[in-house]
Design brief:
With about 100 residues, this protein is α/β, with parallel strands linked by helices. The chain contains 5 helices and 5 strands, in the order E-H-E-H-E-H-E-H-E-H. Helices cover about 35% and strands about 20% of the residues. Strand 4, helix 4 and strand 5 form a beta-alpha-beta unit.
Length: about 100
Amino acid sequence: MIKTISPQDLHELLSSPNSEYDYIDVRSPAEYEDFHLPGTINIPLDQLVENVGELGQDKTLITICAKGIRSAKASEFLLAIGFDTLNLEGGLDNWLSAGMQIPK
């Protein structure tokens, strides 16, 4: 079962960097270039399988996308191969709806 994290809780984590987490934005490179949360790395969903070796299994991976659908698929895949994951509830759309800012 995929675990989720609220925009507020993610904001708190990003505000006080913690080495226990890696933040994976699975949107396309173009979407990522438009805007992204600081501290995230971009691994598009369609490239995740081939790049999974870059991820450390000693950290919890927080997956992020626009609406939470692609990141849920990423979390499902990562969970199935042994990673601990959290999916941003509702994606960046929910982040913005919750009043959180995204630096340009």
